[in-house]
Amino acid sequence: MNKYLFLLLLLSGTVNLPGQEISDRLHTDDYDPDCGLSYRIEGEQLRLQWSKGDGEDMYLRIRLDERRALIQSLGLVQQETEKELFNELHPVYTFWHGERNLKGKDDWTIFFDRPDRKPFTIEKSILRPDSLILSSTGKRCTLSVTGLQSASFRGAINFIFYPGSALVRLEAAVQTDVPDMAYLYSFGLMNYSNSLQSVHWESPLEGWQSMERSAARGEVRETAFRTVLGASEAGALALFPPPHQFLYPLDFVENYGYNWSGTDYLDLFEGFGIGLRQPPYGDSRWVPWINAPPGSVQRMGCFLLADDAPAEEVLERVKEYTHHDRFPDLPGYRKLTSHYHVEHALNYLEEQEKQGTDGIPAGLEDPDFVQVFKDMGVDMVHLAEFHVGRTPRLPTDERLKQLRIMHQECERLSSDDFLLIPGEEPNVHLGGHWISLFPKPVDWVLNRPEDQLFQRETETGTVYHVGSKEDVLRLFEQEDGLMWTAHPRIKGSKTFPDDYREEAFYRSPHFFGGAWKAMPADLSKPFLGERVLDLQDDMANWGERKHIIGEVDIFKIFKGYELYGAMNVNYLKMDRIPRFTDGWHPVLDALRSGNYFTTTGEVIIESFTVDGVPPGGELTPDSSEAVIEMDLNWTFPLNYIRIITGDGTTTSSRIINLDETGTFDRDHFSLQADIRGQSWLRLEVWDVAANGAFTQMVYLTKE
After folding, report:
1. pTM (2 decimals)?
2. Could you say which of 599, 634, 660 is where a domain stops?
3. Are 221 and 190 within one domain?
């Protein structure tokens, strides 16, 4: 049984009493008033003001008396008159400090770990404000309040403003010197007055929920859109996390309750507040938490959005940042998402047996997962079925029965505007875990006894038996399929595809490459999925033209699940969705072309070329520089563009800061890239919430 040690820190040090001059502790060396935010000192308070983009301004008053709330007042400026929305708000963090099993290696690329099943501590942080540092870059301004401490972390609370928008990012920026830490955090915005009078959220299954302050005990809230709101007589305040970065990787995506509200939550958040939480037990399988390498600055963020509007209206504005948890349409593209273990075929067969029927089992006529995908704007879903241990050993008849139910159900559940594509994670013969994708239904058995033919014809069609890597390659050549490494360099593919990069099947054009997912979690990174982005570059430098596809890699999907935060999609350059009965060879062709991009949904690469050549294409440069043209649209302010190139041995990158961008915009960018001696070039774009998109390579050749 786990031991819980609740640490309430009594930290020694100088107490910052009222009356001390705030001007003595305010540092503005790196602040430029042209950022769009102004400040002034008002006695013992610092007042900040910035435009929210609709002709009105926001203001925030900060005080440094540790015995009182950090935020004295938050509100609007309308015709030069302040309208207070909330007062006496105080940010509080708690940290769940667990142990990362590094197995004697300095290797943080880990999923198979369970810090929740080992002794861990829960640390309450204390903010003893020391200094205020006001800085700016472009149209971004940061106020850093130093003096945040817990038993394991030290750092500051940062307020990051995006003038032209009411959006504010609030984060704990902290470091640890603990050598092997895995952690989670919970955040609370406490109200030490009665200005926050009620709490609101949208339940994913039960709709709009409201609770008066007096009735709101501190409890977990299973919210839609990962958002909880507090309301006053004057307006409402929404609190929500970065939509994808906040959720550490799990196999299941049930709604574990990512928000909380009420009084004395966990007996660690004293008083009344609203907040975020990361569930410590997750799906009770592999629950890896978040990496905190020593010395890294972990940025535990949330976003605040306040206005003088009802809570329902403010929530609608929050939803716009993720397109209502939907992937937007883009003319000329179709949206594909991959790697789902919904196990519909196995469930179908099990229910047939239970119900004694040969038809569609009751309850599976319209399975939840299909409508969930449609509601999210997904056009095509590639399954990864039969992910159970006995599948490779199944006898032929049982195996074919399962396959044919999968093919039959994929056809039944597909339509003119939705394609459900059969697929598996077979994990045999090659090494590690891998994914299969054929352009039509294929019957294949994952084992081949010595006296069994590789291929045989039956009354229902061709049946293949594969018993080696040579058989697998032969099958994919004959059926023109694609295979790739699932979750490369982690989980069951820890040393792959590296270990088989010299194999004939890897060098084959039927080996596609690898799959990208935000795993593991590390909040010191301003982007997601470094593990596979590095692999993308390595594979290009190895010399074979391989690609990366976004994967999700989860089990089961039902209405009310928190799927969006775990998702990404691939926008394929395609005119239409193929009909199941015609086969889906156009999907494989679009993937092979490389003319697509992968995104978390908030950043859309509408177009991208290098000297007119799109991703996947080949360019023979006529100079040492190339012109990159791109059209982007986004919701959160953008953070940066990263241009990556490789020469066949080494990789280089260039960062273009986008700190002049605001919220909900689109723009054309034209950039010069030095391509002397380079073999390929690709692009990434990331926003301030670590949402992003990336392309495949443009290949650079010599005449």
Report:
1. 0.96
2. 599
3. yes
